[in-house]
Each structure stands twice: as C-alpha cells, then as structure tokens.
Amino acid sequence: MEQEIKAEASLQGKPDTVSPDTCPVHRTLETLSGKWRSRILYELCQKPSYRFGELKKAIPKITNTMLTSTLRDLEELGIVTRKQFNEIPPHVEYSLTDKGRALFPIFVEMAKWGEAYL
C-alpha cells in the first residue's frame, strides 16, 4: 500500500522534481526494455520452468547467443532464476523469481490496454 502511494505521488509530482532515475515507471520500462526481454518473460509466465531448448523453440527467431545474454541479464536483475542439474545429461532450467512473477499483473494490464487502444 505504501509503495502504491509513493508511485502515485511520483507520477503526480512536478516534472522538475521527478527524474528518470527516480521515476518508478521509467525504471520499470528500462527493466523491460530490449528486443527480447518481454518475449522471454511472456514465455516464462506460461509454465513453471523451461529448459534452454524449450525457450529457444518457443522463440524461434532469437539466436542462442542473444537468448543466453538476455537470460543472464534477467538473472542479474533478480527476475529469472537459473537452476543447473548435474546429472546425465546435464541440463539447466529457467524460471521466474517472485520478483519476476510480480510482473505478471503488469503484463495482463498491458494486454488489456493493447486490446482496447491498439
């Protein structure tokens, strides 16, 4: 509740007092920016975890290098978690953290807005 009040206050603040570094909307959009981030996050919202190959099949136009790089970026931001299984054959699974799952309602609202206005 307190975070909602702070967010609303910063949106209603005077333009000269809200900088891009302190604006929560700007920081959120920066986090989601990039050609592939939103698509990867969308796919990760579809089921609890994905292997690398499954994500690659779900997003056929992305290169292995770009998928790896974007997943690492999202992992550094604390949005995606990477779990390595040391078995034969070894494999890695990616899933959303609690912070990443908290983005789901944002995507739902963006979808509603897109349906209504685009």
Automatic annotation (TrEMBL):
Coiled coil: none annotated. Residues 1-22 are annotated as: Disordered. Keywords: DNA-binding, Transcription, Transcription regulation. It holds the Pfam family HxlR. Transmembrane segments: none annotated. PANTHER family: TRANSCRIPTIONAL REGULATOR, MARR FAMILY. This is Helix-turn-helix transcriptional regulator. The lineage of its organism: Bacteria, Bacillati, Bacillota, Clostridia, Lachnospirales.
